[in-house]
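The instructor's notes for this session suggest beginning with a concrete chain rather than abstract definitions. Hand out the sequence below and ask the class to guess, before any prediction is shown, which regions might be ordered.
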Amino acid sequence: MTTVAAYAAPAAKAPLERTTIERRAVRENDVLIDIKFSGICHSDIHQAREGWGEAIFPMVPGHEIAGIVTEVGPGVTRFAVGDRVGVGCMVDSCRECANCKAGLEQYCTGGNVMTYNGVGKDGEPTYGGYARTIVVDENYVVGIPEGIGLDEAAPLLCAGITTYSPLKHWNAGPGKKVAVLGLGGLGHMAVKLAHALGAEVTVLSQSLRKKDDGLKLGADHYYATSDPKTFQELAGTFDLIVSTVSAPLDFGAYLSLLKTDGALVNVGAPEEPIALNLFSVIAGRKTLAGSSIGGIRETQEMLDFCAEHGLGSEIEVIRADQINEAYERVLASDVRYRFVIDTSTI
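After discussion, reveal the predicted structure:
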């Protein structure tokens, strides 16, 4: 065991504070990673404040981790000391179910082990990336290609893969009209990725405040959802809508924007249940769906795609003592577009 510095929430809704945690010794197939940068995801706030249900405390959030390998176990074959690597939202899974065998570890039917606020197979709680180091089985680590800075790569481990996976699954590409609902940490990556995949991209945002940003990121069109004319003008337009919003929506209104056989896919997770008139999907054979992160193979594919197309997250790097302030700014939509912690300041 090794003691390392970290930032943790000692209890639900409590401010995060500097502390120390124990990391396990490197096992046969483990890599020890010197964390350089850790992104702040809205999920961190939901969990640290128990918005998604009972959680484990003290909690060290962080599942957008980028760093350098400093030690490898004797059985490791995929990584070497000095490699640039990343860790996303999970650090283990059952490895036996059909989904795991198909490279869909994010949908492990035996239950995957989340990077933080989870319990490992050893019965110990998991602690995330708001720390100086982390030890992870090599099978749940990905390589970060040269050409992407570790700071702008960190958010790709959640925001990048969470939007890339549904775009690929629902065949976003040339000839397809894709709308991105919400232009935040997830939404800005959805725009970049959908554009790079060749789709015609529209941003749907509450106001036109970020219109210039949206167009620079790769959007072809930008509409304000606060304007009722938007829903009249865009009725029946889109093949795919990716909703990155974590607040309850009028899903019937957004489903009306889909073509026949179109899909509205949620990657944002509201804390409250939703109401839906099923005629919204029956009329037009439409799909209301959800998507989680991606599997390890797809996460690596996404990173390679980003390197090939020169894509990274738009970031604001902060010190660790700014985490609590950053949480409040995320809730106020006051970030363009992802906070990343310089973990050398922990």
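Then share the key points. The mean pLDDT is 96. The two ends are 19 Å apart (CA to CA).
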